[in-house]
Amino acid sequence: MDESDQPTAGPSTSAPAETAWLSSSKPRPKKAHLSFNDKEQVDYIRELTAKNVWYYRDRLSVPRGPCNLPVLRECWASGVIDENTLVWGQGLGDWLPVKNVKTLVPQIRTLEVQVTTFIKKHLALRPALNRMHKHRAEQRPAALHTPQVSEMY
Fold first, then answer.
1. What segments bear the compositional bias annotation Polar residues (predicted)?
2. Is residue 88 part of a domain?
């Protein structure tokens, strides 16, 4: 038996098998192909959602409203509502989380709302929170100055 007849077990033979296994384990996203009727239906739902009058429940479960999409966008940017906030509008049988109302989250979280939320969180809320942490650390007794307590407060 020649050396050329013997199978070689090197990195070149194991790498493709490993790569094939990795690529087959990842689910590939499917492109959505909507028919003309499906697109019309989505546009119709967006239009109804935009024109609807909405009510939402705040953190204390107090109903607020009536309000329209610009008010909901402002509440989202202020942190008053999020995806789990219960909303009700005409055509809904009961209060539902915002994330369960088709097309409502994308209509609220526009690019402007996302930028405003980011700016408010990083330029206003985070510095205020850091000041509170520093103030509380100064008021704590020296015996409690441990890394665990410093990270908690």
1. 1-26
2. yes
